[in-house]
Amino acid sequence: MTAHTLGRGWRLFAILVLGFASGLPLALTGQAMQAWLTVDGVDIATIGFFGLVGVPYTFKFLWAPLMDRFEPPLLGRRRGWLVVTQLALAALLWWMGSLSPSAAPELFAIAALLVAFLSASQDVVVDAYRTDLLPEEERGLGASVHVFAYRLAMITSGGIALIWAGQWQSWPRVYHSMAAIMLGCAVLSLLTLPRVASHLRALDSDPARELRGFVAMLAGLAVGYLAAHHLLKLAGLDPDDPNRWIQLLFVLMEIAAALPLAYLAARRAGFETLNRSLSSYFAQRGAAAFLALIILYKLGDAFAGSLTTPFLIKGMGFSQEEVGIANKVIGLWLTILGAFIGGLIMTRLALYRSLLLFGVLQLVSNFGFYLLAELGRGAWGAVDLPAFDWGIVALDRPTQLDGLLLTVIAGENISGGMGTVAFIALLMALCNQRFTATHYALLSAFAAVGRIYVSPLSGVLSASIGWPSFFLFSIVVAVPGVAMVWLQRDALAALGRPAVPAGADD
């Protein structure tokens, strides 16, 4: 075995570890957390608002330049930030598992928000580390390994977590187990990850001025938030109004006011790494239209998927184990299959045609949830699943999985995986190599807008109009994303056909 082969194996092992660590926290502040809230008796509208704990995924480009610019001592710039974020994630997941969402909802929400912040920060470093570590000829294979590990982690923290919760009758024990797994990832990162070369920073800027600019940006966020909050109160509105639409208005207006002021403050105070990277992105033709496309393309998927777990458990009456097996274990493997199929198709189709085709398939797949809500469980019979014991997860007795549920999950996950491949290819094509970490963080943050901000609206909407109408609405909101692809067809064609891995991270 040659030194080159050994080196490649070491690098791919590093990508495997980091892909798993990156995917593990997502469901723990998303679908798994929703299941815990549901069985703990939290109402559906409040569960929808808990989706806002994922807000850091949409803002991570604001602090990504700091992680690009500064280096923790001793461990190196990339590896240092990885170990720090993973150790902190392990500690926070343990703390979150010690709380009760029904007895202390505010404290539980703060813990979940901190987990999401650190998870988003880890994602920034993982993306940058993967780019720095892999030579050009290994990036396709490395991306595929990352996708596999990322989805495997989502199966662990999503599907297996639900099965454990049903068997152990203890969500705290599940979260403590996930904290131990994250601690293991931190140890592996510390002891086994290869160092990367100390590449030139995005800018050779004054560190003190960068920090002042970052603090000024945070001050701008706070001023914008408080200004919008108090203006709405002066208008006679109450942030604690039992009307969920009023609560949602406060959230959206506070964010709409905070972001522009944060940008202006960063610009005036000299947060140069952020300022130059944003200027670099917006200098390209059609930059704003591409951001609109990024937000809209997955919007229908985000609506349909935002409350899937509460819908299946509370709305349809499926057990936690059945949802865990069908939606989280089988479903995520089908997403990997969809990503693989999408990657093969994209070797034949250009980026524009792939985005259009997969966008239509995503739209059509949402109709399956409408059928499930209308026809109910048992409409298409059931599939027998024998007992099994895989060591980390077991089913102690044979059970039946609903036939319509499996069909809907298959359609949604395969089409979603295909759409994600084309979507990530678009993000890759839009990145300027000089500012890869910050650009990717910016674009992926915009990509998370739909997934995060539709959650409170989804909770209010589903409670107001019922599940069948809600899923029909998810089909309607998917149309603008497909239309935007068609309107941007010339600009998408001009991006060329970048290399696409057989999968994508969410």
UniProtKB/TrEMBL annotation:
Keywords: Membrane, Transmembrane, Transmembrane helix, Transport. It is found in: Membrane. It is a multi-pass membrane protein. Its main location: membrane. GO terms for molecular function: transmembrane transporter activity. InterPro entries: AmpG_permease/AT-1, MFS, MFS_trans_sf. It comes from the Bacteria. The chain crosses the membrane at residues 12-32, 44-67, 79-96, 108-126, 147-168, 174-193, 214-232, 244-266, 287-313, 325-347, 354-373, 404-430, 437-454, 466-487. GO terms for cellular component: membrane. This is AmpG protein. It comes from Azoarcus sp. (strain BH72). The gene is ampG.
